[in-house]
Design goal:
The protein is mainly alpha-helical. It folds into four domains: about 90 residues, no CATH class; about 60 residues; about 70 residues, Orthogonal Bundle (Arc Repressor Mutant, subunit A), CATH 1.10.10.10; about 90 residues, no CATH class. Helices cover about 60% and strands about 5% of the residues. The longest helix has 30 residues. It starts with a helix and ends with a helix.
Length: about 425
């Protein structure tokens, strides 16, 4: 956008257009560059305020367009304000709350309208193509929230692919396309998101990743606070940090929303590089023991095989619990409700493992019939309690509320449910 502005406005500024990226350049280096380009010598005093005053004075004598691109909150761009009378300053930023001590014209860039989308597609393809595949192209744009850059990138990929818009849309919809494979010049969308993500605080990164659990786009401060074990004030401060980084946006009724492409980034960020292998091993284990059990029920096999089955299939809940404990670490374990939830489900699986091994001890080492109740039953019943509390936390995260007045009105249903448990 900055480069495009420079081309559009080049005839209005006789002394030139200067373009600087503030995410990769310090403000002092910009002062040095401007002075050098204009043939001026900076004052020998190294005070940044004196340097800034000198640059403002020489800009006031020239007709220059100064474009400051990718401005961050800590870039000290305010030192160049207010803008000199003859020159003009354009600031482009993804940040929402930059300190700017001057009267400015502020423009918020929105997503494309449907008409603008169709104009873009016509410029990339042709009018006949757009008329023929209009609905599929609009569906494709909707997947990325009508974001101009994202739509442009996908349209370019579609043009040079051998797929129809319908097939390409289905591929995108089923998330078979990674952000890492969507390129623009020498960058891709994953790297663009990752720059914003890396600039967040550690707590901000954790909260941002927790947004991946929402199926919809909107969420409230209260939900984020509860999920992550924070006060509402602290959750609000962190959400402000995400908002300032343009990773989330404001919605209706004091809620926030997250863009589909941002959710896709979170999904790729949270994806375990070994997940495919983990799923394969899980499938093989479950398949093996299912077939093993089926043959035990239908064939006249050695009685000892029953003991083999009972002594070995604990590896499935053990496998699940160990990976669950590992994944819970990514969500802060006890520091967040989601971490607690994963920990409880994993602990329930581990209790099942202990219960099965207790039965194995009676069978294979003591060589006696398993008594009832036994230590194994303590572990098995413990699963019910642990899973019950986990489901309760899951319901809270999902927004379920418990109205005691309703429970009182249905006291018999409640009584029988508890009794049955």
């Amino acid at each position: 956008m900055a480069i495009q502005l420079g081309h559009l406005l080049r005839n209005d500024f006789s002394d030139g257009i200067f373009w600087f990226r503030l995410d990769t350049t310090k403000i002092q280096d910009i002062f040095v560059a401007i002075a050098h380009l204009l043939g001026e010598n900076l004052p020998k005093n190294n005070s940044i305020e004196i340097m800034a005053s000198f640059i403002r004075s020489i800009l006031a004598q020239r007709r220059i367009l100064l474009i400051l691109d990718n401005v961050e909150k800590e870039s000290k761009v305010y030192l160049l304000l207010p803008p000199p009378s003859s020159s003009t300053i354009i600031i482009l930023s993804k940040q929402k709350n930059i300190y700017l001590p001057a009267n400015i014209y502020s423009f918020s860039i929105q997503g494309f309208t449907e008409d603008e989308l169709l104009m873009l597609f016509v410029s990339i393809f042709n009018k006949e193509y757009v008329v023929k595949y209009k609905q599929a192209l609009l569906n494709l744009a909707q997947v990325v929230g009508y974001l101009p850059l994202a739509v442009h990138l996908l349209a370019k990929q579609l043009k040079f692919s051998s797929q129809s818009p319908e097939a390409f849309y289905r591929r995108i919809k089923h998330e078979q396309v990674s952000l890492r494979n969507i390129w623009y010049e020498n960058k891709n969308l994953y790297l663009a998101f990752n720059v914003s993500y890396q600039n967040l605080s550690k707590e901000g990164q954790a909260i941002f990743l927790s947004l991946g659990v929402f199926e919809g786009k909107d969420f409230s401060v209260e939900t984020i606070a509860y999920m992550n074990g924070l006060s509402e004030d602290r959750a609000t401060n962190i959400l402000d940090e995400l908002y300032n980084a343009s990773l989330i946006d404001e919605s209706l009724n004091n809620r926030y929303r997250i863009h589909p492409m941002t959710k896709k980034f979170i999904a790729e960020k949270m994806n375990n590089p070994y997940i495919a292998r983990i799923l394969q091993i899980t499938f093989l284990l479950f398949g093996f023991f299912t077939i093993f059990w089926f043959f035990l029920q239908t064939q006249k096999l050695s009685y000892n095989l029953n003991y083999v089955f009972g002594s070995s299939y604990f590896v499935i809940p053990l496998w699940g619990s160990l990976w669950g404990f590992y994944i819970a670490r990514k969500w802060g374990v006890l520091k967040s409700i989601l971490g607690k939830l994963l920990l409880l489900f994993s602990f329930g699986l581990f209790l099942q493992t202990l219960g099965q091994n207790s039965y194995t001890y009676y069978d294979n080492f003591l060589h006696i019939v398993v008594p009832y109740p036994s230590l194994g039953d303590v572990f098995y019943f413990g699963c019910i309690i642990v899973y019950g509390y986990a489901v309760y936390l899951l319901s809270k995260i999902s927004g379920v509320t418990f109205d005691w007045e309703i429970i009182k009105r249905h006291i018999w249903v409640t009584f029988f449910s508890v009794s049955f448990l």
